[in-house]
Amino acid sequence: MSATPYFVNNKGPVIAALDLGSNSFHLVVVIARPDRSFHIVASEKRMLRLGEEVALSNSISASSIQKAAKTVAELSKIAELAGAEETIAFATSAFRDASNSEVVLAAIEEVSGVRPHVISGVREAQLIYQAVRSHLSLEPVPALICDLGGGSLELIIGDQRQSYFTSSLPLGVGRLKSQFVSSDPLSSKERSALVKHVHRVMEPAISKIVDFDPRSIVVSSGTFGALLKIAKLSSGAGDQAEQFDDEPVETRELQKIGKRLLSLGAQKRLAIPGVDPKRVDLLPIGWLVLAEILSATKVNTLRYSDWALREGIILDLLEAREDFEFAFDAHELREGAVRALAEKFHGLNSHAIKVQEFSIALADSLKEKLKLDASDIELLGYSAILHDIGEWIAQEDHDKHSAYLVESSPLKGFSDLEKSIISSVVRFHKRGTPKPTDYSAFQRLRVKERSKVLILAGILRIADALDRSHASVIESLTIEVTAESLLIFANTNQDISMEINGFRKKKGLFEELTHMEAEVFLDS
Description:
Helix content is about 50%, strand content about 15%. It is built from 22 helices and 14 strands. The longest helix is centred in the middle third of the chain and has 25 residues, at about 190-210.
């Protein structure tokens, strides 16, 4: 029999979003999907740091207007070349505060053909919340979402269902740098004045936030994200910090790196792993803002969302389109989460899809014999898609790397138990006889669940072997199941000696667990 894989080429509209921030201008061009996942076609960032200029003079200079207009023209051209059907630009704090904002907007429109929309701070916070909620699985209890830009700080309390409090404060790092900092490193006097100011401006919002007793913090955008990355690298996470952005970071690691950043001058800060030269002067200020937030909460870890205002802009635009509708089906949400993870680590390829097809076909044929239900087969299909994503880290031990990425990911729509099952199946897809001590997520499962994982891993090993060449030389399978055997007939007119050799090496776990003899034949 032949099975239909879950994933199809489900393309949606190509949308470009331009975030004209106070520190930098960001462009992202995506293919949007009904399951609220995006495929990034193009992404660009240009540092202009208009917020510092506005904080000093309350306006944007003629030379900066010219640079801004040229930058938007360049970014809109990139969007056009990337195939964007629609480009929308939102401008934030620097444009809200500049006395000559209308002049700047008119110049940008004249040069680029794009007319940016200036949004309020509260609207900015709402869009950021929509993006973070769509990207990460927020807990049922309220979380605190923090986005620090060049001109403003957005604070949001919300869970997966709704937001409960939003605030936009004039505490952007560029603004604070212009107002309080003239020495490097910060003098004790500058630091004291800055901290007092941040506390005073933030206090009314914090007093409301603590009433919600947030149990987690999610940060987004450049400066906060940079701090988390540096803390991960400094804690010994090494290259893993690059490989999985939203892995939690402990507050104690942030506190360590915060002290270092405050004590060093810019040149010495550049020697710290992960420090971006474009942000080197802003990081100590960003830490002092984050430290004020942490001091008011009881949170021990933070997560980073690489979805923020730009993605919120796109989601908002798509919600308003009459020719596009988001799906609210839980199955599609799960598919989208798996697809997004596979794409992130370049694992959604013809081999993964072929292995998924074969896995589902085998499991469907064996379901009565092995007592597999629809949920088991669904999780096996997702495991097949994700089984090789660890090759993005390294070919050697990629089964371990794949399991790590699955277990660490915020797979929306999946319970912790389901994530542990998928990561365990992925972990044991290669070879050997799995033992509970081999993998902690597997060890935490109950005996019944471990047995099911091993059966699914045995099936995945066979499916993987049947596309060992990664060339899809077997078009489809016809499968016969008897009391004591699994007979697989491969429909092909090509040489499948590599697949047969791999099958013989990898069928052992399945045969050991099921007491069935598995064989593969050419379908004549």
